[in-house]
Write a structure and sequence with these properties.
Order of helices and strands of chain A: HEEEHEHEHHHHEHEHEEHH
Number of strands of chain A: 9
Number of domains of chain B: 2
Strand content of chain A: 15-25%
Radius of gyration of chain A: 18 Å
Shape of chain B: globular
CATH architecture of the largest domain in chain B: Orthogonal Bundle
Shape of chain A: globular
Strand content of chain B: under 5%
Order of helices and strands of chain B: HHHHHHHHHHH
CATH superfamily of the largest domain in chain A: P-loop containing nucleotide triphosphate hydrolases
Strand order of the largest sheet of chain A: 5-6-7-3-8-9
Radius of gyration of chain B: 23 Å
Distance between the termini of chain A: 48 Å
CATH architecture of the largest domain in chain A: 3-Layer(aba) Sandwich
CATH class of the largest domain in chain A: Alpha Beta
Number of helices of chain A: 11
Number of domains of chain A: 2
Helix content of chain A: 25-40%
CATH class of the largest domain in chain B: Mainly Alpha
CATH topology of the largest domain in chain A: Rossmann fold
Structural class of chain B: mainly alpha
CATH superfamily of the largest domain in chain B: MetI-like
Oligomer: heterodimer
Number of strands of chain B: 0
Largest sheet of chain B: none
CATH topology of the largest domain in chain B: MetI-like fold
Helix content of chain B: over 70%
Chain lengths: 279, 257
């Protein structure tokens, strides 16, 4: 059992269970500040002089051409990598260990462990903190009901549909109780209908469980619908071409939102920025 | 189709083929055609019926020697399992050990280990120990290499995911790496079990006073061809049963495939 997270377990659980405000003692400042960030793999500069700020409990969408370093940026924020240059502060922590403690990362593929049931997958973070299997299952089970997965607790990942797998993967990220979520193209592998459904679902989930979110996607519409603000990145080395405010706050009624004239205008603006930044 | 129907569909064709082959052999051997074609004396080419008869008549002798060989196989496999899995885990966890040992292990696979059996007999005598050593040596490699490959085949993204979910190195090993490696370890175990029978018999040929391999040499010298075949049948049955047991265990344990 590891006891080096800065959030005591009980408080982390309150947070995961949807407590109205962050638990006392938890980092109250959950914002992200990125200044002059640079990163390279060997000679290949992937990120250059990047500045970004995400206020606490806001959702920042990141769009950019493929291979522009979005995923690297996400791994940097999550504390999985150490930046080459610049400053990267997540919830007051700048060390990679500190960022790792404050941030939960949801990879592109759901990566549910096939030898665990849906509920045991979702409860992984609790088990890693040393909570017993029964209690972990009980805590995760409450969220299963709330997020439309009731009845599928004991199902194996292979028995779940793509959308449900993605929901379990998201619950797994949420139950970790971290104030910051780094989501890497969470819905890229889903078909169009399921993806739209899952976007509405995520909007609802963030409504009840607000977190500071960095959402990487290649889908401009998805970014604008789910985010408060969208940063358009250039091709490698990645820098911010343009930042746009999302036209409407996300709501569970996705279809009504994405067809309004405002939304369409901003979407076109984002597409122009994307084209301008793509070499 | 029902479950039983499907099982029938799977087992029936090979069973019929086997029965057909034995039938042809029976006819060819009992009419003397097979001996004529091979240009041999009749008594050197036993028919399946004669082999069956020998199996029954020498049942206690066969069982006694089969038990000796089975013990050699099982203890040797046990040693290989413990040492092989231990090696795989140690090499997986330590970059330095892996860099030092891995090339040597792979290279040593080209050494025909079976030829060291006579040396082992010189060192350890005629008892169970040289056989145990040869079985363990032969079975070690498929177990260790398969398990090591399995441990290395873990998706790096899954490891990252676990790290952000506060998993310690130990938890990543038990919750992700070990289950990932399990099917690989079972593949290695199936190969090892099949090798174990060969290794045990070779060990006995190099020097022994009991065991199916010992019995085969005796029968060969005394031209007891039917019992020689009977010993082969018993050895094969043991190897097949052990592989079957491992396959069964795999199906019980690795439920997610």
């Amino acid at each position: 059992m590891r006891q080096d997270t800065n959030m005591p377990t009980a408080e982390a659980r309150d947070f995961a269970a949807g407590a109205a405000s962050p638990a006392p003692g938890a980092a109250t400042d959950t914002s992200i500040a990125i200044r002059g960030l640079g990163h390279s793999y060997g000679d290949l500069q992937t990120i250059e002089r990047l500045d970004l700020a995400v206020p606490a409990r806001a959702v920042l969408g990141l769009v950019g051409p493929s291979g522009c370093g979005k995923s690297t940026l996400l791994e940097l924020i999550a504390g999985l990598q150490e930046p080459g240059q610049g400053e990267l502060v997540v919830g007051g922590a700048s060390s990679s260990q500190g960022r790792l403690e404050r941030c939960a990362y949801m990879p592109q593929r759901d990566l549910l462990l096939p030898w665990l049931s849906a509920i045991d997958n979702a409860a992984l973070a609790l088990r890693n903190r040393g909570i017993g299997r029964r209690q972990a299952r009980q805590e995760a089970g409450e969220l299963f009901e709330r997020f439309g997965l009731g009845g599928f607790e004991r199902a194996t990942p292979a028995e779940l549909s793509g959308g449900m797998r993605q929901r379990v993967a998201f619950l797994r990220t949420l139950i970790a109780g971290k104030p910051v979520l780094a989501l890497d193209e969470p819905f890229a592998s889903l078909d169009a209908i399921t993806r739209a459904e899952m976007q509405g679902w995520l909007a609802g989930a963030l409504e009840t469980q607000p977190r500071t979110v960095v959402l990487v996607t290649h889908d401009v519409e998805e970014a604008l619908y789910l985010s408060d603000r969208v940063a358009v990145l250039s091709s490698r080395p990645a820098r911010v071409v343009e930042e746009l405010n999302a036209p409407a706050p996300r709501s569970a009624a996705r279809d009504g939102t994405v067809t309004t004239p405002d939304f369409v205008t901003v979407r076109e603006q984002a597409m122009r920025a994307l084209r301008a930044g793509t070499k | 189709m029902t479950m039983r129907g499907r099982a029938m569909g799977r087992w029936l064709p090979p069973a019929l083929l086997l029965a057909g082959l034995i039938g042809i052999w029976q006819v060819a051997a009992s009419t003397g055609v097979l001996a004529d074609v091979l240009n041999l004396e009749d008594f050197l080419v036993p028919s399946p019926a004669e082999i069956g008869e020998s199996l029954w008549q020498s049942r206690s002798l066969l069982a006694e020697n089969a038990w000796v060989t089975l013990k050699e196989m099982l203890f040797g496999l046990g040693c290989a399992l413990v040492v092989g899995l231990g090696f795989a885990v140690a090499l997986h966890l330590s970059e330095l050990l892996r860099r030092a040992f891995y090339p040597l292990i792979v290279a040593s696979q080209t050494v025909p280990i079976i030829v060291v059996a006579p040396i082992l007999v010189v060192w350890f005598g005629y008892g169970i120990w040289p056989k145990l050593a040869i079985v363990a040596l032969i079975c070690f490699f498929p177990l260790a290499l398969n398990t090591l490959d399995g441990l290395g085949s873990v998706d790096p993204e899954a490891t990252k995911m676990m790290r952000t979910l506060d998993a310690s190195r130990r938890q990543i090993f038990w919750r992700v790496e070990a289950p990932t490696a399990l099917p690989f370890a079972f593949s290695g175990a199936k190969i090892a079990v099949a090798f174990a029978a060969i290794a045990a018999v070779f060990g006995e040929w190099a020097g022994s006073d009991s065991g199916l391999g010992h019995l085969m040499l005796q029968d060969n010298a005394q031209l007891e061809t039917a019992r020689l075949f009977a010993a082969v049948v018993v050895l094969s049955a043991m190897a097949i049963a052990l592989v079957g047991l491992v396959a069964l265990a795999e199906r019980r344990v690795v439920t997610w495939r």
